[in-house]
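Example 4.3 (complexes with small molecules)
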Amino acid sequence: MKISDLMHTTDRFLSLEFFPPKGQTEWPSFFKQVNQLAGLNPLFVSVTYGAGGKTQDNTLEIASSVHEQFGLTTMSHLTCVGAEKKGLAEYIDKLLDAGIENILALRGDMPSAGAPDVWTDFSYASDLVQFVKKRWPEVCVGTACYPDAHPESSSIEEDLEWTRHKLSTGSDFAITQLFFDVRRYQDLVLRLRALQINTPIIPGVLPVLSMQSLNRILALCGANIPLKLYLELQTAYETGGDKAVRAKGVEIARGQIKELLALGAPGIHLYTLNNADICLEILTDLPMLDG
Ligand code: FAD
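Answer. The structure with flavin-adenine dinucleotide bound is encoded below.
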């Protein structure tokens, strides 16, 4: 099923993001996590794609298995940095053969070694959106957007302009980078609407599992956290260790989800971190997810 079609059937939904486990030995425990979360009846699940890394080989296999074994509408992430049209076309054909009609079109992070030789067939995610939509118009294509602005952008205005451009090149919806200040999401949506962009913007919510994982993720993606919230998490750590941080993380995510839905977000995209327990804790008794 195409996510764009499914989205019209509900006014608030849950979607779940997984990353492919590194080694095959981890697959059984990964599928156990998926099985636990499949019961939440997500509208769709997505599987990340390692730009230039080993895990991209697993994305297709994991996405196909999740789709086949659990009957879940599945989306494969796909990055175009350093990629050639031929290789991506082969990947997309394999996805379609596996019954997967949804792609999250991304540029991917630039390799630290420098840019020039990786700019082959694609420069930006919008090039990938256009490539997919032209050749496979039947494919549903999502893209990423950034409530805190993408870290490479020189200003919020510049980031907004490229986001507008990307969404107007044929993206069926967008999923946001993680954020903690709900006003940033609201602001992004309002600015896009003022530019006549009515594409659904699905907010991405990250569970905070520990200070260590929070610090690592923030350093990787360049998202912001309000200092007040960070200090609360730090205090939780000093008084109750990882367990207290996790409990605070659940409280923060639940609050964020309630606020986002009250603001009219079309659904919630939960970054599961492949951890079913924390997702179930966050979503327990939140009476707003139709699935
Ligand atoms: P783009 O939209 O191409 O934007 C990149 C930068 O270029 C931005 O600063 C933008 O403002 C600017 N820009 C865009 N178009 C133009 C233009 N025409 N001219 C000049 N500047 C322009 N990474 C992975 O490797 N694998 C994943 O599975 C993955 N999943 C993700 C899922 C989500 C929901 C999100 C939010 C991010 C994900 N990422 C993933 C990270 C993503 O690849 C990085 O954030 C990357 O740095 C940017 O990707 P993009 O698709 O947003 O790029």
